[in-house]
């Protein structure tokens, strides 16, 4: 599978956020987008997934050469896209298991029995070092920051998308948790030959995840792309040179 | 006084009920577009054979009530009598005395048949009743009497198939000392039915009442509930679930009253509306003088699933005692578009997402219902309605 973003411009509430972004993520590849706060990284993620407020004003988003911009979020997910939310919403009264089982069935696993599903779920919970009582809770209700991140990665592990967009999978996690989450992301991606588009502020997750390409996003545009060394350069010099250059 | 005059007199009394004279609530009352006097004045009861209820369904309930007629499958605790042959004071320790109580007078005039659910002291019982209005208005009075230390879990299913009919049920619930009861009423009448519900209780010392109502059916629904924890250490909890679609209208007025010391009352209301339906939630809490160390709480919440839907949530309180805990809250909002996007982004289609969100919204109330059959039937009916719009 190949995700292509071509000359994409996006506005939210009539405010121009994304400006002519081009990016291609193929299955098995890992791309990382880094950038300062407010640069449009999360808006890009939401636009790819079809958030109704992210209005595409120019350009296109394609999956295997076919435009998906007219599709609702659930249809994009059915084609193999997955979005890990930076701040997942709490959904009152909806059990985590009920939600995830519904999602799994919706993605073409209608015959999946609850017993088989639970076995898979518990294996993934164990590898993410989560407590089993987690599965009896309501979706994202009362979750700590770390639990929310792990819950999103757990969903990815169970739903097995072809291309996963991970919006700050490392923020709010302690050092040990970053390692656990990163190890899980690597394992799931490798097992499913998944393409990854990771949005992050920090270089630390890249100690555990091998990035094929690193992109710098400033002011809604991708202003630089390179290999892993670009992330290290950012760690030392920060985003300021790119912000200044973009301002000019 | 003939029956017609009696009904007219009762109607006047009804209109002077405290719930009907509250100026704030009066402003928000939903008009029921028919003449109650005319509807109540039906002279012949429906023949039992005319109750269009499948035989399999009949046998699953302890009692099946038609318009003035009844099938009793379990006569150990459920009996039925003609209201016109009963005196105004039904039980030795009656909850109402129609000579003094206008509400009771209205009940007496309205219902032609009275169903008794009588649980002897110490007994633990379960019962189920189907109210089926098929051709004519169905008016029933239900007297629930639970003896000392006894328990009852009652499931009522209210159905109608006739066009333009009325289903009205009056509850009088009497719990002796340390008795407990869960009364569950699921209203699933058709879209042309006017639904009238009344509830009033009397609790003994240490008695514990839970009254759960799901209002899913009917074109116009009017509920008037007075739930009083009137004896020391008694408690009363009311859970209301309202699910409306199309142009359904709900006028739900529930008073919870702490009338003695160390009492607890709680009213939880959840309303979700589609289409152009409308709901007025009038939760009123009264803590009487002398009700020391009592606890009273109203929690009303609304969710709008359609742009034309409207919920007026009007929690109110009157507290005449100092050493009490009394709280109320209310909130109504549109269904959250971020929740919808979140769930859809994981692959769940729009219809299923709405179902998950609505089920989740009701779960805060639904999980308080102990009767598993009530929970199952209620959620099934709500989900059927969600699917059909």
Strand percentage of chain B, roughly? 35-45%
Q: Average pLDDT across residues of chain B?
A: 83
Question: What is the total tally of β strands of chain A?
Answer: 10
- Which spans of chain B have pLDDT < 50 for at least 5 consecutive residues? 34-51, 87-103
Radius of gyration based on Cα positions of chain A: 18 Å
How large is the share of residues in beta strands of chain A?
Answer: 25-35%
Label the structural class of chain B. Answer: alpha/beta
Structure description:
The complex is a heterodimer of chains A (about 250) and B (about 400). Chain A has about 250 residues and is α/β, with parallel strands linked by helices. Helices cover about 35% and strands about 25% of the residues of chain A. Chain A has eight helices and ten strands. Chain A has helices spanning about 40-50, 75-80, 95-105, 115-125, 145-160, 175-190, 230-235, 240-245; strands at about 1-10, 15-25, 30-35, 55-65, 65, 80-85, 165, 195-200, 215-220, 220-225. In chain A, helix 5 (about 145-160) runs parallel beside helix 6. The longest helix of chain A is centred in the C-terminal third of the chain and has 18 residues, at about 175-190. The model of chain A has no long low-confidence stretch (mean pLDDT about 95). Chain B is α/β, with parallel strands linked by helices. Chain B has helices at about 5-15, 20, 25, 35-40, 55-60, 100-110, 335-345, 350-365, 370-389, and strands spanning about 65, 70, 80, 115-120, 125-135, 140-145, 150-160, 165-175, 180-185, 195-205, 210-215, 220-230, 235-245, 250-260, 265-275, 280-285, 295-305, 310-315, 315-320, 325-335. Chain B has a ten-stranded mixed sheet. In chain B, strands 3, 4, 6, 8, 10, 12, 14, 16, 18 and 19 form a ten-stranded mixed sheet that branches. The longest helix of chain B is centred in the C-terminal third of the chain and has 17 residues, at about 350-365. The relative contact order of chain B is 0.10. Mean pLDDT of chain B is about 85; it is low at about 35-50 and about 85-105. The interface of A and B includes residues 91, 93, 99 and 138 of A.
